[in-house]
Write a structure and sequence with these properties.
The chain is an alpha/beta fold. The protein has helices at about 20-30, 55-70, 85-90, 120-125, 145-155, 160-165, 170-180, 215-225, 245-260, and strands at about 1-5, 45-50, 75-80, 100-105, 135-140, 160, 185-190, 230-235. The protein has one domain (about 1-260): Ureohydrolase domain (Arginase, Chain A, 3-Layer(aba) Sandwich), CATH 3.40.800.10. α2 (about 55-70) packs across α3. The longest helix has 15 residues, at about 55-70.
Length: about 260
């Protein structure tokens, strides 16, 4: 599986310094894994994307260009802050019916900056017409601004907040997620590590309590892996500077190992 490293943190409004260290730390942890839980030995062809911490526009162009080179294959991406998902998804936005499934504690629909930040990239993708509002799925929400909530409601964006996930069967919730996601011709899965409870993933800039357990996340991901339309996977917002015993980097590495999808 092709793995692109994007050590970029300048899209986080100064709040994500340290996430640029994540790709290297996660790759180090990959070496500690052998067979995944399906008994398969994962392999990765790793490549760096050129970034400029002082120029978001230049970095976004480099990301979009490189992702376009590999978009016909199954691709994994390591950030970096969550703003990188904007440029990465843009690389497949011209394909037939692409969809974006995001695991996140927040909706990322705050402002409408150009270039977008890690707090508003979803809103920008929708407002620019790069992503159909009906092709967005948000999972793990539990902290949002009133403006974000209003944006989701106004645009009828599909979301599964933690309250609902805890009240209902995880099996049924996953069925609903898959039922929606299978309709996209190209599925992009973005995993903001703060979707996971900080008890399992402390190394992030926005540790929100009452999130998914790591095993709940893997239950959903193992089932999603059965979908035939997965195109791109990214993992973002891991911050090694805030981590404890590399727990979060190890978790991100395991996500890659378990989601290793062959072409």
């Amino acid at each position: 599986m092709k793995l692109l490293k994007i050590p970029f943190s300048a899209g986080g409004l100064g709040k994500t310094q340290g996430t640029e260290l994540a790709p290297d730390e996660i790759v180090k942890e990959l070496k500690e894994f052998y067979l995944n839980e399906s008994g398969i030995l994962p392999s990765f062809d790793i490549e760096d994307i050129n970034i400029n911490q002082s120029n978001i526009e230049e970095t976004n162009k480099n990301i979009t260009s490189k992702v376009k080179e590999h978009r016909k294959n199954k691709l994994a991406i390591l950030g970096g802050d969550h703003s990188i998902t904007y440029a990465s998804f843009k690389a497949i936005s011209d394909l037939e019916n692409p969809g974006l499934l995001i695991f996140d504690a927040h909706p990322d629909c705050m402002q409408d900056f150009d270039p977008p930040t890690h707090e508003d990239f979803v809103k920008v993708l929708v407002n620019k017409g790069l992503l159909k509002k009906e092709n967005v799925i948000l999972v793990g929400l539990r902290n949002w601004h009133k403006d974000e909530y209003d944006f989701l409601k106004k645009n009828k964006i599909r979301y599964f907040q933690m309250k609902k996930i805890s009240e209902e069967s995880l099996h049924d919730i996953t069925d609903a997620i898959m039922s929606a996601a299978k309709n996209f011709s190209h599925l992009y899965i973005s995993i903001d590590i703060d979707a996971v409870d900080p008890a399992f993933a402390p190394g992030t800039g926005y540790p929100e309590p009452a999130g998914l357990t790591s095993r709940q996340l893997f239950y959903i991901l193992h089932r999603l892996k059965n979908l035939k339309n997965i195109n791109i996977i990214d993992i973002v917002e891991v911050n090694p500077k805030k981590d404890i015993n590399n727990m979060t980097s190890k978790l991100a590495a395991k996500i890659l190992v378990e989601l290793n999808v062959t072409n």
